[in-house]
Amino acid sequence: MTVRTLLIDDDPDTRAIVALALDLHPDFAVAAVSRLDAADTLRRGVDAFDLILLDMKTSDMSAGALVGTVRQWSSSAAIPVLILSPKHSDAERSYRSAGAQGVIAKPFDPVALPDRVLDMLEPFGAPARRSAG
Fold first, then answer.
1. Third-level CATH fold of 3-121
2. What CA–CA distance (Å, rounded) separates 47 from 125?
3. In this structure, are residues 120 and 104 in contact, taking their beta carbons and an 8 Å threshold?
4. Domain Response regulatory: where (predicted)?
5. By Cβ atoms counted within 10 A, which residue in 14, 52, 72, 120 is the most buried?
6. How many other CB atoms are there within 10 angstroms of residue 63's CB atom?
């Protein structure tokens, strides 16, 4: 099973690094977009996604407002949302209470990122982790 991932990040360099790290793994197919493009992508509902990976740096909105907005765009509010963010226990609680399923602390190891995401998605039916090599 391929995890169809929508990566939302307004920084083109970070977006490229994260997309490449995931695309090199056999279990991921990634669409990487800015926040503004994400709204159009999700509203159209043409692509079905298994995961939304959201960089909190993309907005000055609160975690609750941003995750809530992403939930409104999505044709399925059940899509897991993982947040890329500097890890602070208060922020992580805020993201989770807003509806995110997990937080990946920045900075992170791009090579380890795909397996980390798969581990976090396992309760939601993600494919069993396998080596990208």
1. Rossmann fold (3.40.50)
2. 19
3. yes
4. 4-121
5. 52
6. 23
Could you report the per-residue pLDDT of 55-82, keeping only the tens digit for each?
Answer: 886 555 665 676 777 777 656 577 889 9
CA–CA separation, 39 and 17 (whole Å): 22
Pair of tokens at residue 116: 């980390």
CA distance 89 to 129: 27
Q: What is the DSSP string of 33-93?
A: E-HHHHHHHHHH--S--SEEEEEGGG-SS-HHHHHHHHHHH-S-TTS-EEEEEE--HHHHH
Which long-range contacts link 32-36 to residues 24+ away (Cβ below 8 Å)? 32/7, 33/6, 33/7, 33/8, 34/8, 34/9, 34/10, 34/58, 35/8, 35/10, 35/59
Look up residue 60 and give its two tokens.
């000055």
Residues facing 105 on adjacent strands: 85
Q: What is the pLDDT of residue 133?
A: 45
Contact assessment for residue 54 and residue 81, using Cβ atoms and an 8 Å cutoff: yes
